[in-house]
Design brief:
By secondary structure, the protein is of the alpha+beta class. The protein has a single domain (about 15-345, about 350-405), classed as L-amino peptidase D-ALA esterase/amidase (4-Layer Sandwich). The protein has helices spanning about 5-20, 25-30, 35-40, 115-120, 135-145, 180-185, 305-320, 360-380, 400-405; strands at about 60-70, 80-90, 100-105, 120-125, 125-130, 160-165, 205, 210, 215-220, 230-235, 260, 275, 290-300, 330-335, 385, 390-395. It has a six-stranded mixed sheet. A four-stranded mixed sheet has the order 1-2-5-6. Strand 9 and strand 10 form a beta hairpin.
């Protein structure tokens, strides 16, 4: 747990960064709020040193966070609550492709570049995540960045995914610009816990009724199982409060008083109340909607067909938190391996290695555990946010989560 002074410095740094659309200083934000492992929640598995996707050597993460304005929505002006997140599989200075694959649990969403990924088996650049209406500009910005880099091919089919932030953000104002994506690409860092919560592409996202966004976690296998690392990064914007689970406990159902509300007059026919008014009976019964994007990285040497199996297991981690892959949800996952460096080099044949199928099950379990924790870390890190039309989405309170798990006998 950080001191009040540290929390104050982190909050001030976040305000300065977000108001100008700069890359958030991840080293300041990492300790601002408790993460899952600080609370000792019974998710399972052994986290890596950072408990983040950057535990996989070479992986770098960058964010650009855009927060401006308040009050009534004026399309084109704001309020703005959005951004861009970027993951470089081998770092921004290493352009060696990685073996990869993808999977969709429910396809009401977008992830560009998947056709060639499935056909060729390689991920040939960074992955971007943003809001639904900014996929095109981020995709084009990645191309602009890529063609100017020595050693990178002068064409590409970038992978960019999205979730919808139109509740808190002026999504039709198209506030994400090419320079924001390029700032995230250039500002990406490894070796630290990436900023979590309302940052980057996750700035305006709502997860299982609470403020969501970006979250990350990792798991390390014992030496007897290869000692491999699995890292996960999520942009979570899915689910309903009534279905939310933590370590199997129906935490969301216990926190109905924290349902989203309007810090002003509630629109006609809205299930959401005015903030401060008694909770309305239908608030926690809303249909699951939204989306979740999950990126899985591992240093285990794996072929694309095996990484497809890893990406598929992400759905089990989402389900453990209460996600059901509802009709309105875009649940799209990608998994890559940093093993087999140089396998994509131009030549007639390439010698590669792969984990035996007999040894792959522990990697499945690690993926499920890290996904569950990353989703929870996104909500634990996020602060309460008020956005467009004074919609207020509350943060998940760590102390109450602990109390509820104790009530159900899941924590001593």
């Amino acid at each position: 747990m950080s001191s009040p002074a540290t929390k104050g410095r982190c909050a001030r740094a976040l305000r300065r960064a977000t108001l100008t659309g700069l890359v958030v200083p991840v080293t300041l934000l990492a300790q601002a709020k408790p993460r899952e492992r600080d609370l000792g929640l019974p998710i399972g598995g052994t986290p890596g040193t950072l408990d983040a996707i950057t535990d996989v050597k070479g992986v770098e993460v960058g964010h650009t966070t855009l927060i401006t304005g308040s009050g009534k929505l004026v399309v084109g002006k704001g309020p703005v609550r959005t951004g861009v997140t970027v993951v470089h599989p081998r770092g921004k200075d290493n352009h060696d492709p990685v073996f990869a694959s993808w999977f969709t649990l429910n396809g009401n969403g977008e992830m560009t570049g998947t056709t060639w990924l499935q056909e060729g088996g390689y991920l040939e650049g960074p992955i971007g995540i943003t809001n639904t209406h900014s996929v095109g500009v981020v995709r084009d910005a990645i191309l602009q960045w890529q063609v100017g880099k020595p050693g990178m091919q002068p064409w590409g089919l970038p992978m960019v995914a999205e979730t919808y932030d139109g509740g808190l953000n002026d999504i039709n104002g198209f506030h994400v610009k090419p320079e924001h994506a390029i700032a995230a690409l250039d500002g990406a860092r490894g070796g630290v816990v990436p900023a979590e919560g309302a940052v980057g592409g996750g700035t305006g996202m709502v997860c299982e009724g609470f403020k969501g966004g970006i979250g990350t976690a990792s798991r390390v296998l014992p030496a007897a199982q290869g000692g491999y690392t699995v890292g996960v990064l999520v942009q979570c914007n899915f689910g309903s409060m009534r279905d939310m689970r933590v370590a199997g406990v129906p935490v969301g159902a216990e926190l109905g008083d924290l349902a989203a509300c309007f810090a002003g007059e509630a629109p006609a026919n809205s299930l959401r109340r005015k903030c401060g008014a008694p909770p309305a009976g239908g608030e926690t019964q809303e249909t699951e909607q939204g989306s979740i994007i999950v990126i899985v990285a591992t240093d285990a040497p794996m072929m694309p067909h095996q990484l497809k199996r890893i990406a598929t297991r992400v759905a089990l981690g989402v389900g453990r938190t209460g996600g059901t892959g509802g009709n309105g949800s875009g649940d799209i996952f990608v998994a890559f391996s940093t093993g087999n460096a140089g396998a994509a080099a131009p030549r007639d044949t390439a010698r590669v290695t792969m984990v035996s199928n007999e040894a792959i099950s522990p990697l499945f379990a690690a993926t499920i555990q890290a996904t569950e924790e990353a989703i929870l870390n996104a909500m634990l890190a996020a602060e309460t946010m008020t956005g467009a039309n004074n919609l207020r989405v509350n943060a998940l309170p760590a102390t109450r989560v602990v109390e509820i798990l104790r009530k159900y006998g899941r924590l001593k």
